[in-house]
Amino acid sequence: GESVGLHLPTLSVQEGDNSIINCAYSNSASDYFIWYKQESGKGPQFIIDIRSNMDKRQGQRVTVLLNKTVKHLSLQIAATQPGDSAVYFCAEKSPLNYGGSQGNLIFGKGTKLSVKP
Amino acid sequence: GAGVSQSPSNKVTEKGKDVELRCDPISGHTALYWYRQSLGQGLEFLIYFQGNSAPDKSGLPSDRFSAERTGGSVSTLTIQRTQQEDSAVYLCASSLAAALGGYTFGSGTRLTVV
User: Which of A39, A85, B79, B96 qualifies as a FRET site for B69, CA 20 to 30 Å off?
Assistant: First the structure.
C-alpha cells in the first residue's frame, strides 16, 4: 500500500548549522502534512503543518517545504540547537483516509537528529 | 485536562498476564487514537475512535488486543495473555475532529513483559 518514508534514518549536525530532514510520500491524493518531534521518553509533539495548496510554510526557526511534483516533504531547522535533538516524524493525511482507515494520519519511520555541541 | 494523560507511565508484567492501559484525552476531542512504538521504531497504528461511530480496529495485531472508549472520553487498551513481543511504548492521541488538524499525543505507557 502507499506509505510515507524517510530518506535518512539518522542525521548529525553541528550546533548552529541548519538541518534538513527529508520525507517522501507516495499517495498523490494526500492533502495535508505534519511534522512531529519526539524527544526521548515523550510522545510526539506537533511542530508544523502544511496543506497541499501551499509549497512553503514558516514557523519559528522551522520551515516546511512541499514539492508535490516529486512527492517530497522537508523540514528545515535554522541554527540547530542541542534542544532540537530528537526523532522527527512526517505524517500525511489523504481524503481517502477521512472516516477511519489507519486513523487518518500515516506516519513515516522517523529520522533521528543529533546535534553536536 | 490540559493535555492527553496516560497511565501508568510504566508497567512491568509477567508473560501471560493481562494489562490495562488508560488514556484520558483532551476534553472535547472527539477522536482518539492508540499507537504502538517499539524501541527505535516508528508509530504503528492500533485503533481509532471517532465520536459514537464504530471504532476502526484495523491495526490491532491480534485478538488479544482490545480497546474501548466509555462515554466518548476515557479509553482503555487491554492486552490479554501478554507476550514478550508486546513490550513497547503505547501512545494515545486525541484530536478535535478526524478530518483536520494534527493530534495531541500523551507521553505513553512503557510496557515491559518479562
Answer: A39
- Residue B28 CA to residue B26 CA, distance in Å, equals 6
Burial B37-49 (b: 16+ CB within 10 A, else e): beeeebbbbbbbb
Place of cell 512526517: A90
* Cβ-defined contact of A101 to B56 (cutoff 8 Å): yes
Tell me: the pLDDT tens digits for A61-104?
999 999 999 999 999 999 999 999 999 999 988 765 554 455 56
Question: Looking at the complex, does the CB of residue A42 fall below 8 Å from at least one CB of chain B?
Answer: yes
- Answer yes or no: do A43 and B42 touch at CB < 8 A: no
CA angle A90/A105/A96 to nearest 5° reads 125
Alpha-carbon gap, residue B114 to B111, rounded angstroms = 10
* Cis status of the peptide bond prior to A44, with omega within 30 of 0: no
* Domains within chain B, CATH numbers bracketed: 5-99 (2.60.40.10)
pLDDT, tens only, A14-52: 999 999 999 998 788 888 899 999 998 899 999 999 999
Q: Is the pLDDT of residue B93 over 50?
A: yes
Size of interface A-B (CB pairs under 8 A): 64
Q: Do the Cβ atoms of A4 and A94 come closer than 8 Å?
A: no
What domains sit in chain A, N to C, each tagged with a CATH number?
Answer: 4-116 (2.60.40.10)
Q: Is the minimum CB–CB distance between B41 and chain A shorter than 8 Å?
A: yes
Please name the residues in contact with B80: beta carbons below 8 A apart, sequence gap of 6 or more: B18, B64, B65, B66
